[in-house]
Amino acid sequence: MIKATFQKYTLQFKRPAGTSRGVLTEKPTWLLTIEKDGHRGVGECSPLPGLSIDDMADYERAKLLWVCQHITLGKEALWEQLGSYPSIQFGVEQAFLSLEAQEKDILFPSAFTQGKEAIPINGLVWMGDKMFMQQQIKEKLAQGFRCIKMKIGAIDFATEYELLKNIRLEYTPTDVELRVDANGAFSPLEALEKLQRLSDLQIHSIEQPIRAGQYEAMARLCETSPLPIALDEELIGIACPERKKEILQWIKPAYIILKPSFIGGYRGSEEWITLAEKEGIGWWVTSALEGNVGLSAIAQWTYTLGNSLPQGLGTGSLYINNFPTPLEVKKGALWWVK
Fold first, then answer.
1. Which residues are catalytic?
2. Which domains does the chain carry?
3. How far apart, in whole angstroms, are the C-alpha atoms of residue 112 and residue 304?
4. What is the pTM (predicted TM-score) of this model?
5. CA terminus-to-terminus distance, the chain
6. Whether 312 contacts 284, CB under 8 Å
7. Distances 313 to 34, 118, 157 between C-alpha atoms, Å
8. Where does the pLDDT of residue 52 fall: very low under 50, low under 70, confident under 90, or very high at 90 and above?
9. What pLDDT shows up at residue 21?
10. How far is CA 86 from the centre of its chain?
11. DSSP 3-state assignment of 138?
């Protein structure tokens, strides 16, 4: 006999987290638990308010309840019927893998989960005033990060440019890789000029310079930009493999960013990876403010993909009430500490 239940949990930020869409102080998440024959599996369903396509009023009352009532359908059948709820698709995948796991919390056994190897990650600099962002940059460099990702678009571009320039004056691209994430903050008319200025600083790439859904403008930008462009929000809400292929062939980005909670979990992400590699497009994986249950599930899977680029995996340290985790960041890499 198999049964499922869910429980809502509100994660509290240690300090307000600035994004291009406002400031977050808390984040809701749901733990989906499956029980069968004395075994138990847990997955995290973690939509992001204001950004996830499944940030809907009926999320808990209708969809999570429906999943629990139809858990006997199994992982694949449930995934197929949850196309508009990618974070629940991901939670279902996690919960079933957790249920089937030979060792508690180990969804993908590997050298990573044995604590023998780590995943290189970028150090994320959150939006805020100049002093706050400078402080974060110094901390990340002191902690041994050699890939820094800075969110831009919240304060004036001139100040953000100076912050990046100061890093570059002290560290070469070989020493420190710089990535920026605009979260769609630029208008199509101003974007190319700003990308040209950023390219002078030998920036590795920029995520989503203009708002998603402007396919022609984004395609022109990818064609003319001196700076490699990565698609992020552009992938959200695209479930059909044929449509995924069309978008990649039309826009031709340098990279795509994979957030399993936003794009249908492991299966949805792997569809994007397969299509991107056929087009010669690079990629990396990023977490999306999940709690440690979801972050652990993303990290374990990410290691198995064998991508050597620094990944955009959070550290779980943003919240004051996160779930227990074996994950630990040391010298710019994510470790599983046994």
1. 151, 259
2. 2-100 (3.30.390.10), 119-336 (3.20.20.120)
3. 9
4. 0.95
5. 33
6. yes
7. 26, 12, 26
8. very high
9. 63
10. 13
11. helix
